[in-house]
Design goal:
By secondary structure, the protein is α+β, with helices and mostly antiparallel strands. The protein is built from two helices and 14 strands.
Length: 208
């Protein structure tokens, strides 16, 4: 399965490949052959990057799931930072069930997402109103990413593990953890969106 909005990117790469292949047939030249090979490699890269595999999400109110594939690069108080590498799936998912209270988009720069100054980067912040309070899921564009894509909208009710959107190419996702949960990950851990548990409920309580 391919991510929403990816077809135009893939078709552009395919068109470029066919263009060089046609030029190679019409006027054999080494540079056209190189162009055809590079175009083919670009098509394969796009198919790999824009993949969006179906995942069997085990829903539970007793834990929170990772909103993104990647590696935990930083933990700041109650906030977990996940850096996504180019080979990771870049579709982001809801770590917890709730209602999208607000979506705040902010334009900005494109400093590498792992850099401390990336706080000034382009970003999109989902504020999910869960039964344990507000949970912020922030998509942060990196040095290559120039486009944050949103699948959900304000007032949508989202299930745990539901797709929220994606960031094209290298980037980072931050998620805040309510006080009722204990973090069960550490810096350096690899996680998968909708699969990896990042926090568990401290104890059984009546939150109704």
């Amino acid at each position: 399965m391919l991510a929403k909005g990816s077809i135009s990117w893939i078709l552009s790469a395919v068109a470029l490949t066919f263009l060089f292949a046609g030029l190679q047939i019409y006027s054999p030249h080494l540079i056209y052959l190189y162009g055809t090979c590079l175009g083919g490699a670009l098509v394969l890269f796009m198919l790999l990057f824009f993949r969006d595999p179906e995942r069997n999400v085990e829903i539970s109110e007793d834990y929170m799931l990772a909103p993104a594939d990647g590696r935990i690069t930083e933990i700041r108080g109650r906030k977990i930072c996940i850096f996504m590498f180019l080979q990771n799936v870049h579709v982001n998912r809801a770590p917890i069930a709730g209602k999208i209270k607000e979506i705040v988009y902010r334009k900005g720069g494109h400093i590498p997402a792992y850099h401390k100054d990336s706080e000034r980067n382009e970003r999109n912040n989902f504020i999910i109103d869960s039964r344990y309070g507000e949970v912020h899921v922030t998509q942060i564009a990196g040095s290559i990413a120039r486009r944050i894509v949103t699948y959900s909208k304000i007032n949508d009710t989202v299930e745990q593990g539901q797709r929220l959107g994606m960031i094209r190419f290298g980037s980072r996702v931050d998620v805040t953890i309510p006080e009722e949960f204990n973090m069960v990950i550490k810096i350096g851990d690899r996680v998968k969106a909708g699969k990896s548990i990042i926090a568990t409920l401290k104890q059984e309580r009546d939150f109704e």
